[in-house]
Every structure is written in structure tokens, then in C-alpha cells.
Amino acid sequence: MKTQQVRLLSQRMRVDYPWPVWAIGWLAILKAFIWLGAEPPALPANQMTLMGYKYALFMLPLFFCGIGAWNMKKWAAWGLVGLAVADLLFYLTVPSVRASLALNTTSSVAYTFSITVFAINGPPSTILILLLSPALMKRLNPSS
Question: What is the pTM assigned to this prediction?
């Protein structure tokens, strides 16, 4: 078990390691935790509660699926696809929470920060995870 982990780590450090696999892993891990440092928007309490439940529910699965994707595990790839579809369905079926992804235009720093949070926490990263999933699926370990 330990030698397999070392082998996987050494593979990830090689220049020819597939960039889509790196990207999908980083997107999942960042999506899992970036909301913790985001400034809360001025939303009604019920919408904030709903977003809090969504983020808390997705946090650990996204983190573990991101790590699993780097290790090219089949369960991680399918988990990321399922989480991405659920995330998109959430934003499509509960349109009132889209306001939580509002851009702050009070200053250039705040605007840059809110764009980053939107890109990672919002639909853009979810869509990118879905677009990169076939590249991950192609490289899966058959025994995972």
C-alpha cells in the first residue's frame, strides 16, 4: 500500500502528468474550501442557511474526490461528476441563491476577490469539472 502511494506521488511530480487531472483535482479541493474565507453577501437568512447546508454537504466529498482524482480512482471521477451535476441542478432549481455569487464592485481588490470566488465556487468551475471529466475517465486505473 505504501509503495503504491509513493509511486502515485512520483507520477504526479512528472512533467508528463496529465494537466486535466491536476486541474480537476485542484478545482474540487478549492471548491470544497474557498467558501470558508468568502465574505458573506447580504442575503436573507433562509437563503444563507440553504447555501450553508449546500457548502457543508459538499465540502468533504469534494475534497476526497479531488484527492481521489489525482490518484485516478474511478469512484472519485464518478463522485465528481455526480457532485457537479447536483451543484448545477441546485443553481438551476433554486434561482434565489444565485445572488450569493454577486460581484462586489466597491474596489478593484474586492472585485478581483469576488470574481475569483465566483469562478471557483460558482457554476464556472462546476462546468469545467464536467468538461474535464472525460479526460480523467480516460486515464482511470482499471482496478480502482
Answer: 0.81
